[in-house]
Specification:
The complex is a heterodimer of chains A (335) and B (335).
Chain A lengths: L3 E6 L5 H11 L3 E7 L5 H11 L2 E3 L2 H5 L6 E4 L6 H10 L3 E4 L7 H14 L3 E2 L8 H11 L6 E11 L16 H4 L3 H17 L3 E9 L10 E8 L4 E7 L10 E9 L3 E4 L5 E5 L3 E5 L3 H15 L8 H20 L3 E2 L1
Parallel strand pairs in A: 1-2, 1-4, 2-3, 4-5, 5-6, 7-10
Antiparallel strand pairs in A: 7-11, 8-9, 8-15, 9-10, 11-12, 13-14
Helix pairs in contact in A: 4-5, 5-10, 8-10
Chain B lengths: L2 E6 L3 H13 L3 E7 L3 H11 L2 E3 L2 H5 L5 E4 L6 H10 L3 E5 L6 H14 L3 E4 L6 H12 L4 E10 L12 H4 L2 H4 L1 H12 L3 E9 L3 H5 L5 E8 L3 E8 L11 E9 L2 E5 L7 E2 L9 E2 L7 H15 L9 H20 L3 E2 L1
Parallel strand pairs in B: 1-2, 1-4, 2-3, 4-5, 5-6, 7-10
Antiparallel strand pairs in B: 7-11, 8-9, 8-15, 9-10, 11-12, 13-14
Classes of the chains: A alpha/beta (335), B alpha/beta (335).
Chain lengths: 335, 335
């Protein structure tokens, strides 16, 4: 059976660890190369050895490797544009970490480069690949809770990057590199899920985002109110809202209120709890990353459309940036 | 010294909460019960060993020291001002009044007459929230982002006064003041601005052209964010009378969460019916009303200082009123 050969560009984003493991163990995917650009070059090197992948000092060398058919790019956000465009030029299919770029103009350039090269470009937003939210969407579409009216979600809250051990995450606190703090880091996931659940786009956004908890130079938490064209009201909280001792590393919750019922998605990832010095939730399954990798792999191998295109990711970024603007100005922003 | 207490309004809140509390409070004597419905006045009077009245003038001519006003919101100002002018201390149910303007007049009258005016913000006497506030203090949690939701399926028919915004203020005021006061109490900060969105979900709300689902984002001094959600439209089977609180406090030194799952209720599962949760509670513990009234009576006797004042109640109403203005304009409103 044909497998898709992946290269991973950079371990700056800690998601690279999970993607490497999933790609390497995938039925239709193989991890063949890793480059050490950006932060955590040392980790990238150790990982390459662990998976028996070729290690390259920089992405240009990796892109010249004809064995590599697709790349997962986990570099600092401010370098997304540069590297995604080069990868497209070299004919590599691209799974690009979110957010797509620092601004919508850069996003357009990435999208154009992918179109011109005729390669697949996909962005990984996790919640819609979880089994609970897929079930919730199915139930909404079957009319089990009547017309959808209101969504309250934490999507998602994580611990701040400084608590991740063994990785240099300082770029997350530098808005020149990351585009923003906790809200920029996690809200795109929640926003994607709202676009997908409602099948609609918001017409208006109001948000309050700030450096409220840790005293970082970037925001650490934000809440946005999104009013969708079809009348659905959504309130989304996202950021680094979980303290060090919080029992979940990652928190994704939804209240989906319809006219005739509501759905209570308490966690998107199934877990059990271990109690020792503190309570800790252990996820016994993370189908989202596996589904993302498999979906992207199938799209490339069978030349099918990807579910989350550059355009979808650009729309997502527009909403996130509008939320930041709203918060700065303390007024609503129309989209 | 025994305080003589008179009751105006022997309806819902009297029967569900005040009647039982008054029976167990020492050092007071309920001497008079007034209601425009003679049967209800008589029934209330009988339960408390008091005299029944249907005329407010005759009721106010008695020698009661304190009048409890437990009537629909739109009648508060009129009755309270008459009682104060008749020389009685007053305890009025929340919201203080239908409008801020009325509330101001009530407070002015109390000051002019040199009498006490208290408003039944019973959340301040609920063990859960008192304990939570205590933990916040002792453990120096420093709250920065609080979501408080109070949601239910309002069990009253559409011609009931709650559904008429001109009589109840609508859900934004009726439940809204509980949450706006809670946020101010927990943040110990004053509000700066509010953005609010309302929805009409149930038929009862649409028929009355009022909201039954209302959310507010309130910015408080010190970069603090309050998210208030109040709803009469959650599609619970209302015969169970459940009323759910959600609290999520994210602070500089930790996080505190309270969910409906933490409410002491009895969960019931039947083969053909999923998860009804029988609650012995209304919106609060019955003993909270007792603690509240005992405290107010002791304040009147000069033995305690009030933990919540009519001015606090007025600010809670002011935030809700500004929120309603925001929802009409679709814009942020300064407070």
């Amino acid at each position: 059976m044909k497998k898709l050969n992946f290269g991973i560009i950079s371990y700056a984003h800690p998601h690279a660890l999970r993607y490497a493991s999933v790609i390497a163990s995938g039925k239709r995917s193989k991890l063949v190369a890793i480059s050490g650009d950006g932060s955590n070059c040392d980790v990238a090197k150790v990982e390459a050895k662990k998976y028996g992948a070729r290690f390259y000092r920089n992405y240009e060398e990796l892109l010249k490797d004809d064995n590599v058919e697709a790349v997962y790019i986990a570099i600092e956000t401010h370098r997304h544009k540069e590297i995604a465009i080069r990868a497209a030029e070299e004919g590599k299919n691209i799974l690009l970490e979110k957010p797509i770029a620092l601004n919508t103009k850069d996003a357009d350039e990435v999208i154009k480069a992918a179109e011109k090269a005729g390669i697949k470009l996909m962005l990984p937003f996790n919640p819609r690949f979880t089994e609970t939210l897929q079930k919730a969407k199915e139930m909404i579409e079957k009319g089990e809770i009547g017309a959808l009216e209101y969504i309250q979600t934490i999507s998602e809250n994580v611990k701040p990057p400084i608590f991740l051990q063994g990785l240099d995450m300082s770029w997350f606190l530098d808005p020149e590199k990351s585009g923003g703090g906790g809200f920029m880091d996690t809200a795109p996931h929640g926003i994607d899920s709202l676009l997908w659940l409602t099948g609609d786009v918001p017409k208006k956004v109001y948000a309050d985002i700030g450096s409220k908890i840790y005293g970082f130079p970037v925001d650490d938490i934000g809440t946005a109110v999104l009013e969708f064209k079809n009348g659905v009201l959504a309130v989304l909280t996202a950021g680094w809202g979980n303290p060090k001792g919080y029992s979940y590393g990652l928190e994704i919750k939804y209240y989906l209120v319809g006219r005739e019922g509501f759905l209570d998605v308490r966690t998107a990832y199934p877990d059990f709890t271990v109690y020792q010095e503190k309570a800790e939730k252990i996820y016994w399954d993370r189908p989202d990353v596996r589904n993302i990798v498999e979906t992207f792999t199938q799209a490339v191998l069978k030349d099918k459309p990807v579910p989350i295109t550059g355009e979808v990711a650009k729309k997502n970024l527009e909403i996130v940036l509008a939320a930041y603007e709203s918060s700065r100005e303390n007024k609503t922003v129309r989209l | 010294m025994e305080l003589k207490v008179g009751i105006v309004g022997c309806g819902n809140i009297f029967n569900l909460a005040h009647k039982g509390a008054l029976k167990s409070i020492e050092g007071i004597k309920v001497a008079a019960c007034m209601d425009i419905d003679a049967a209800r006045a008589k029934e209330g009077a009988k339960a408390l060993g008091a005299k029944a009245f249907t005329s407010l003038d005759e009721f106010l001519d008695t020698d009661v020291d304190v009048v409890e006003v437990l009537t629909p919101t739109y009648t508060h100002a009129d009755i309270v001002i008459q009682a104060l002018k008749a020389g009685k201390h007053v305890i009025v149910e929340k919201p203080i009044a239908l409008t801020v303007e009325e509330g101001e007049k009530m407070i002015e009258t109390a000051e002019k007459e040199g009498l006490h005016l208290f408003v039944g913000h019973v959340r301040r006497f609920d063990k859960r929230w008192v304990q939570m506030k205590d933990v916040i203090k002792k453990r120096n949690i420093l709250p920065m982002h609080i979501r408080k939701a109070e949601v239910q399926n309002l069990p009253f028919p559409k011609d009931y006064w709650y559904w008429d915004e001109k009589r109840s203020g609508g859900v934004a005021v009726d439940l809204g003041v509980h949450v706006t006061d809670f946020l101010r109490w927990f943040f110990e900060s004053d509000p700066i601005s509010v953005y609010a969105v309302g929805k009409s979900i149930k038929e009862e709300a649409r028929a009355n052209e009022t909201f039954d689902h209302f959310m507010m984002i309130i910015k408080f001094e010190g970069g603090k964010t309050g998210i208030a959600e109040v709803s009469w439209a959650y599609p619970y089977p209302s015969r169970y009378g459940v009323f759910y609180h959600h609290v999520d406090i994210i602070g500089k030194n930790g996080r505190i969460r309270y969910t409906p799952l933490d409410t002491p209720v009895v969960g019931v599962a039947k083969a053909n019916f999923e998860m009804p949760r029988f609650s012995p509670l209304l919106s609060t513990f019955p003993d909270a009303f007792e603690r509240e009234l005992r405290h107010f009576f002791r304040c009147i006797k000069g033995k305690e200082d009030p933990v919540v004042t009519a001015e606090d109640a007025l600010i809670a109403l002011k935030i809700a009123e500004k929120a309603k203005e925001s929802s009409r304009k679709g814009e942020v409103v300064e407070i």
